[in-house]
């Protein structure tokens, strides 16, 4: 399997094949609107604004699995992100990112880039996965890692 073999559904209910992102650098993030890390939307949007034209795509996947910090509908999440953080990068429907009902994409990401001490499970909102232009998962960043902290890694892949 490759990252390009997965299909996802946008927050506006449109099916999208990740093969559409071939040749792009991807930053895939599980998000939440009512989390202490929610202000990272600002940093993610800044990276998107700065590097999108050079081939960066940020893909946001809301999840309500961590203390129910994403309780809203897909429509409410989209509105929150746009109004509060000016999010213009692609957002996808709310999904599970861990456990037996985890979306296959996140099962794959977790296998390809384990976290600290080899843990494969996603522990919290705003876990971030960096994927190179060839679809290889090259890094995983902890929820508390601010987007600006790995900007150089993104630039190196671009």
Automatic annotation (TrEMBL):
Keywords: Oxidoreductase, Peroxidase. Signal peptide: none annotated. Residues 1-158 form the Thioredoxin domain. Gene3D superfamilies: Glutaredoxin (3.40.30.10). One of its GO terms (molecular function) is glutathione peroxidase activity. PANTHER family: GLUTATHIONE PEROXIDASE. This is Glutathione peroxidase. It comes from Paenibacillus sediminis.
